[in-house]
Design goal:
With 448 residues, this protein is α/β, with parallel strands linked by helices. The protein folds into two domains: 8-70 and 328-447, Aspartate Aminotransferase, domain 1; 72-325, Type I PLP-dependent aspartate aminotransferase-like (Major domain) (Aspartate Aminotransferase, domain 2). It has helices at residues 8-18, 60-63, 72-82, 93-105, 118-133, 179-183, 193-203, 226-239, 257-261, 288-291, 313-325, 328-351, 377-380, 384-399, 418-434, 436-447, and strands spanning 39-43, 46-49, 54-57, 111-115, 137-141, 185-188, 207-212, 242-246, 268-272, 282-286, 357-361, 364-368, 402-403, 410-411. A seven-stranded mixed β-sheet has the order 4-10-9-8-7-5-6, sandwiched between helices. The longest helix is centred in the C-terminal third of the chain and has 24 residues, at 328-351.
Length: 448
């Protein structure tokens, strides 16, 4: 049975959850319809909820599950390790093996340091940049998401009412963010070379690093333009500003990751999601010279860093199984399926004369209710009506048996087949033909 409107068992579970958890959930990003849908199992590209409905999963735990659910090599690796122990205070050979894989793929990566989440990876990369340069300020791109560290989340959700004019204003994401943090973050308008260059040059003497995502998902999944990437790399090199490429999400963009795809040699890279095979993980990688800041071979480590579950053997063996299966052929297939979705969605939209655009790269895509693909965060920002249509799209797809996050990117997995893509495209075409709000909005847009 595919998705439906009744989620009786989920409603019962949500009632229980509200009595023991604030809001009934433990994640800000949980999608509700109108209650969270509780899952009981996943296999390959498909999920089954507690009411027995099945869904083709284009969320994949927000791009983490690049092999889909219950990927056999990961399951077998974790099962073997469970019998040998789940975590130790001592290192294991597995962390060496995974590090060798990552160092052989990611540009500039000669050494790796493990943490437990992408948020921690970004946090320690920023701390490393401060320790290495002796500077305190951080630059980041407007609208880009980099986890929950105070400095990294500034202006990730700014809006037309508070983001300022030509030069973006530093806007807190969380209530209670200290004013001192806002003063230490320089926010840049991505794909605007002139304004970005002005801001970087003005603050260069105080900037420890520039944190970027080359295809920022939360900011519209809009690739940074090549001349913009070249410009920021040139400026950061000239001024000794470390360039940090956050690839927690976008390392899935190719065998060597997204920096290699853009021809970029960053100073540090942050990793997570796919490198853990579905288990918690994060990592910072870079040259041996820069990563020496983490060297704790003596008691006077320049930057102390640890974690009870960092490099735990379960995440390590799951990561090894995941990455070994991601050979060049796997990425070529993901690219083919991704291209098919991009082309087919655009054709379906154009045939109906609808002002809808698609952005993304490789195995990631995002729908915008706009006539042209946005090229900046401010062009991407959805109006209230556009946000309503995104939610309606996600609800419609859910009823048709497809999980598609409304306010984030959709992702493919290696478990998906061409038949799965056919199923998705049919469901999306039905949404385009059936939604009354969409037709009224499109007619109004045409008249304007």
């Amino acid at each position: 049975m595919l998705g439906h409107n009744r989620h009786v068992a989920s409603e019962r579970l949500f009632d229980r959850a509200k009595s023991v958890m604030p809001g009934g959930t433990t994640r800000f990003t949980i999608q509700r319809n109108p209650v969270p849908i509780y899952m009981s199992a996943g296999e390959g590209a498909w999920l089954t909820d507690v009411d027995g409905s099945q869904y083709l999963d284009f969320n994949n735990n927000y791009t983490t599950l690049i092999h889909g659910h219950a990927f056999t090599p990961v399951v077998e690796a974790v099962e073997r390790q469970l019998h040998s122990g789940t975590c130790f205070a001592n290192p294991t050979e597995h962390e060496i093996a995974l590090s060798e894989i990552l160092c052989s793929r990611a540009p500039s990566a000669e050494r790796v340091r493990y943490v437990n989440t992408g948020t921690e990876a970004v946090m320690f990369a920023l701390k490393a940049a401060r320790a290495i340069t002796g500077r305190t300020k951080v630059a980041k791109l407007e609208g880009a998401y980099h986890g929950a560290y105070d400095w990294a989340e500034i202006s990730e959700n700014s809006n037309p009412d508070n983001w300022g004019e030509r030069e973006p204003v530093s806007v807190p994401f969380a209530k209670g963010t200290p004013a001192s943090v806002l003063e230490e973050v320089v926010v840049l308008p991505f794909n605007d070379i002139d304004t970005t260059a002005d801001l970087l040059e003005r603050h260069a003497a105080e900037l420890a690093c520039l944190l970027i995502d080359l295809v920022p998902s939360r900011a519209g999944l809009i690739p940074l333009e090549s001349d913009y990437v070249d410009a920021i790399r040139d400026i950061t090199k000239r001024h000794g500003i470390l360039l940090i490429s956050d690839e927690v999400l976008n390392f899935r963009q190719g065998y060597h990751g997204v920096s290699a795809r853009f021809g970029l040699q960053p100073d540090l890279i942050t990793l997570g999601k796919i490198i853990g095979g579905g288990l918690p993980i994060g990592a910072v990688a870079g040259s041996s010279e820069l990563m020496a800041i983490f060297d704790n071979s003596n008691s006077d480590a320049p930057l102390p860093q640890g974690g009870t579950f960092s490099a735990n053997p379960l995440s390590m063996v799951a990561g090894i199984a995941s990455m070994e299966a991601l050979d060049p052929a796997a990425f070529e297939r993901l690219e083919r399926l991704g291209n098919r979705i991009h082309v087919s969605l655009s054709e379906a939209i154009n045939q109906r004369g609808l002002p809808i655009a698609i952005t993304g790269l490789g195995s990631l895509f995002r729908v915008h209710f706009k006539a042209r693909p946005p090229r900046t965060n401010r062009e991407f920002w959805p109006t209230p009506m556009e946000a309503n249509l995104l939610r309606r799209m996600a609800r419609s797809m859910l009823v048709k048996g497809v999980i598609m996050p409304p306010m984030s990117c959709s992702s493919l997995s290696t478990a998906m087949t061409d038949s799965d893509i056919d199923f998705f495209l049919t469901a999306f075409a039905e949404f385009l033909d059936e939604d009354d709000d969409l037709r009224c909005w499109a007619q109004q847009a045409a008249e304007e």
